Fold this sequence. Notes:
Blueprint: E1 2-7, H1 11-24, E2 30-36, E3 40-42, H2 47-51, E4 61-63, H3 64-68, E5 74-77, E6 80-84, E7 89-92, E8 95-98, E9 101-104, H4 118-121, E10 122-124, H5 128-146, H6 151-157, E11 159-163, H7 167-187, E12 197-201, H8 213-225, E13 229-231, E14 236-240, E15 243-246, E16 250-253, E17 256-259, E18 282-284, E19 289-290, E20 293-298, E21 303-305, H9 316-334, E22 348-352, E23 358-362, E24 365-368, H10 370-383, H11 387-406
Parallel strand pairs: 1-2, 1-9, 2-5, 9-20, 10-17, 11-12, 11-17, 12-13, 18-21
Antiparallel strand pairs: 3-4, 6-7, 7-8, 14-15, 15-16, 19-20, 22-23, 23-24
Helix pairs in contact: 1-9, 5-6
Amino acid sequence: MTRIVVLGGGFAGLEAIRVLERQYRRRADIELLLVSDRNYLLFTPLLPQVASSLVEPRHIVQPIRDIRGARRFRFRRDTVCDIDLAGRRVILAEGTIDYDRLVIAVGGVTPTFGIPGVEEYALNYKRLDDAVLLRDHLIDLAEHADHEPDRERRRRMLTVCVVGGGYTGIELVAELEDFFSSCVVPRYRGIEPGDYRLMVIEAGDEILRGVHPTLAERAQRRLNREGIEIRVRTRVTRVLPGAVEVSGGTQLPVGLTIWAAGVKGHPTLSGLPVTRDRLGRIVVSNTLQIPGHPEVYGAGDAITIEGNPGASIPIIPAALAHARLAAENIIADLAGHPPAVIDFAPRGMLVSLGERDAVVEVMGLKFSGYLAWLFWNALHLYKLVGFRKQIQVALDSGRARASARSREPAPSRRGPRLRSRLESPGIARCRLPGRLSGACGRRRFRSRGCPRPGPRPGGRRELALREPEGSRRPGCL
Ligand SMILES: Cc1cc2nc3c(=O)[nH]c(=O)nc-3n(C[C@H](O)[C@H](O)[C@H](O)COP(=O)(O)OP(=O)(O)OC[C@H]3O[C@@H](n4cnc5c(N)ncnc54)[C@H](O)[C@@H]3O)c2cc1C
């Protein structure tokens, strides 16, 4: 029996197992095992819409057991703690498994660059529970600011600082602008349009690096027009309760700091005796094998391909391309054929700029505005797995947008079933689809993790939003 193990149930892991499954469907001598610490696939492009309450959290996840259906690969929900490359074993929180071929696709985490206060006072923005937590904090901020009589304090409470001007940070801030202007201001009588302030802090020379300069400039103009402050060439040196300190020691008062500063390699793999790039990602060859361990392949955000930065960017199409090739090379290897090399270049970039605006570069074609926004929506709906999810997300956004435009929250005859965009459910009530889910809540369903010396990789689960001296606590859960 040959056992092929895939680690990580994200875009890369699921794609790898899909290709392997298709090939080995009828082979009883090959065992396929997928291991992941979450039992669902998270559709990350729609995370900003979860944070801004436009889309329900459970509508952007797909349970792996549903995807698996009647297929023959096995799924094990467990946490990878280490890999014994020499012994060909994966050490999990709940046991150990041997492998003959291995695909590492555990994704990445957001780097903090060792900046003090990030773990304690900034919200992470990577996982589903991060987005739900963020949504709760935003609603709490509005609730507290609504009855704050002092305008200066109110404005400080409603100052949201997004650190990181990549597409995740920019899409988020654009979505937050919509949230404040079309949801918060019309509904909270104590909050006026000038009371909230959104800013993006980017250490590099420009926002949206990797996007065509014309489109990046267009995006920047649009955000400036909306009143969003963009500070480039600015480094955050410390995050404090109620402030961020930037290069030169200046402290900017903020109500909430959101950390969206890129991707680095997964800390679980930091002990592996392999080469890593400066971001801690595992370096693989252009056949996606780990040098010295041809039976181990890497895919997705966890890796970088030696000498091929263009094919190593942390986006979904790259993760899918890596995974397909890793699986095909395993198939070739087991059949005694030589491996193929990666041939991937991103074919475009799509960035949503909130309601009715986006910038799109696809196959050399560049466009922006309403048409681009329609394209962004259509493509992301299409990419969601399953017709039911597509309908649910379309209905969520349609309903939220319609109610935002109507300005008044219409009393619903259907009572609590129709939830307002401003209802803060609390993270413990964040439920995943159907009966098969349950990886999101902090208090419920927590799986046994590996003992770790430091904070959890990928962010924190508790945020110490401590009360700044002399001010009221902005967001409490
Ligand atoms: C907010 C946000 C928005 C984004 N928007 C876009 C977009 O619009 N377009 C785009 O192309 N890309 C986007 N991305 C990037 C995209 O999500 C990633 O490039 C992609 O998810 C990488 O796939 P992956 O399979 O390598 O990692 P992931 O999708 O992160 O999957 C990793 C899997 O490994 C599991 N795992 C992690 N650690 C362990 C462990 N120790 N044990 C077991 N399992 C583990 C995780 O639970 C997860 O299931 C976005 C990312 C974020 C955070």
